[in-house]
Each structure stands twice: as C-alpha cells, then as structure tokens.
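Task 17 of the worksheet. Students: predict the tertiary structure of the chain below and write it out as structure tokens. Keep your answer in the requested format; marks are given for formatting as well as content.
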Amino acid sequence: MGDDQSEVVGKWRVQFRKWVWEYTFGVDGSVSWRDPLNDQNGAGRWTKTGKLINLAWMRSSTVESWNPPGKQADKRTGWVSASYGSGPLTAQRVAASPRNSTIPGMSPEIAKIPWDPGYVDMFLECTYDVNYKIPPDKSFAFSSILQVKYSDGAAIELDIEKDFSPQEMTASAARDAMVHGTLGRGRRIFPAALTYRTTPRLWAARMEAHRVQNEAFKEFANISFIGVCFALSVPAMPAGAMAEEAVAATAVKRRSLPATKVPPAPIQGNMVRLGPGNEPGSLWAYIQTTGREVIYRVEMIVLEGNGPAVATARATHREMIKRSAQAAQAAGQRQFKMLGIQANPNFVRHADQLAREIGVAGSGAPGTATVGYPNYEVILLVSKALGLP
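Model answer:
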C-alpha cells in the first residue's frame, strides 16, 4: 500500500482506561490485538474513511475510530465503543513497518497503491440507473451496471450479474483473496473474487440495485414512471469480517439523480405503430381531430415488462398524450379524450389512473361491445397533460 497509509501500518500501544493492548496494523487492511498480560488476542479490519481510521473486530461488537495525527505522527487519540465501556483512547506507535513492506503473495505493484482509494471497495459514490446501458440483445431487461467513483477521480463500471460471486468465504479466505488481488479497471485493486466478504460495500450496493429493480418493476404500469437513478451511499464496513446477513442489513442511503431519458419513437402524421401489437413494447395509436374535439385513439398498447422496447413505448405514449393536449390547446379547448379500442381491464385501470392524475377523475365511460371488450374513454385536461415530463 502507498505512503499515505504508513501513518498507521505497524505496531501500536493502545490504552483505554485501565486496559493496555498491542495493535498491529497490516498493509492489507488487517489489524490484530494482543493483551500483553494474558496473551489474549483477536483480529479485525481497518479502513481509512476521510481522515479517520475506523476499526471493527471479528466476533465482537466493539468499534473504534482514530483521529488524524497531530503534531506528533506516532501519537493518536480516538474513541472506542465496547460492551465494557465507551470513551477516549490513546495510542503510541512502538514499531513502524518498513515503508516498502509487503506480505507474502502480494504483488509489489499493488503494495505501492494506497488502499484508500485504491481498493475497489473504497469508493466515494456508487450510482445505479435502471436505463443505463441496457444490452441491445435483450428485449426486456434492467441495467445491470453500477457506476462507481473514487476520491482520486477514477471511475469504473461493474456488472452486478457478472462481476460478483456468491461463493462462501471464511474471513481468512477473504483476506487471502484480497492479498492475492490484481490491478484491474481504473487501476483499482481487485480481490480474487468480489464477494460479500471481500467487498462488503459494493455487495450492499448490488443488493440495493436489485431492490431498486423490484420497485421499478411495480411502477411500469404507471404513466408517471420515467426511470430511476440513485446515488447509493454505503457506510464503511470491514472487509472480511462481516457475515452476509450483516451486509444485507446495512442501511444504504439513496439520493435521487436525473435518470437516463429514453426518447420517444419517431412520430409522423400524429400516428405511431410500434411492435407487433400483442407483445410488450407495442403501441398502435393516432390523434384524431374533429371540429368538436381531439381524441387520442389507442388501438393496441402493451407496456408490461421492462427493457428498451417497453421504455420507448412508454416515452412515445407520453409524447402522444402531450401532442394531443397541444392539438386541443391549438383548437382553443381545455380538455381532450383518450379512447382505448376494445380496452381490456389493464387499459381501463391505466386510463382511470391517468384521469385521476392529469384529467377528470371518474370520467371513465365504456362503450357498447359487440365483440370482445368494449371501448373505454376518459377525459384528460390540457393544462395537466402539458406538464408531463
């Protein structure tokens, strides 16, 4: 690891109240403790977050944070929270590791790179956008890409389906996977496998992306859905020390960002014909203008599912509604109709929801059916329809 980590790598004498321990910080993010009076010992992980050094111990609820060094680099203060008490601690370095030290199996190239932000899990921000880089060979899919940024300006992309491994690992196996890592994308240190133990923060972001996908799927029947994009903030976690259940329970914060916009399909002559008509992503519709009213006639529409075809159909459906409102406005009218031909129950629910959101609630009216489902129309308001994204 790089020179900026030499401030803690080595052996320290740590005192908290009446207790005194010896801590040994490794260049791979490992840390161990030993009580010199009884030789009891334990292990954990350390991470540098901002200016703080955060420690977490295996099979222990004890957590510690060390403050930045003062005028004397070999003396530190900090705070410990443990079952036996909480309060300030002091630390004195008693032996520094050689500046060029490595550990068995670690590549010299990796040893020169600062663990923070060099290690792939030490990211600054992670973004997930359901519409980002959907594979062209998949008709219906969410994005599988996490966009990851680091404090040194590096940025990489990770595939939540392909780049991660569900394999089980012990804490020691995770440590080995990290030590025997390689230099990968963005000059980040990648462990032998991206798992919940080697990259707990990225694993938590991956699980959050899956939750976003599930929520987005439920919104696809809603005209207001235009895609979601979140910046995911994941707290510092000790790699190698946590169980999958603990990682899964980690509170990941979301901050909304502008989503990737899907443009509508080309519309000519106020008419559109997308898809075969009976599959997701289909939209057969046109705008009819009479002397008395404007009618948005929907002959076929299937918006269930996900993927670029459905996203395009949704964007085009919204654009057709807006164009109908513009046509009604040009004619001096304050409202227009959306008419579904042989409307099935899904369309009826969708039309009624639109009427509640941008039209006259309760205006839905079925026509007379001779074969199949009856037609169904609702009244939409020009002013509200023009406000659609």
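Marker's comment: Residues 308-330 form the longest helix (23 residues). The chain has three domains: 3-96, 108-256, 271-385.
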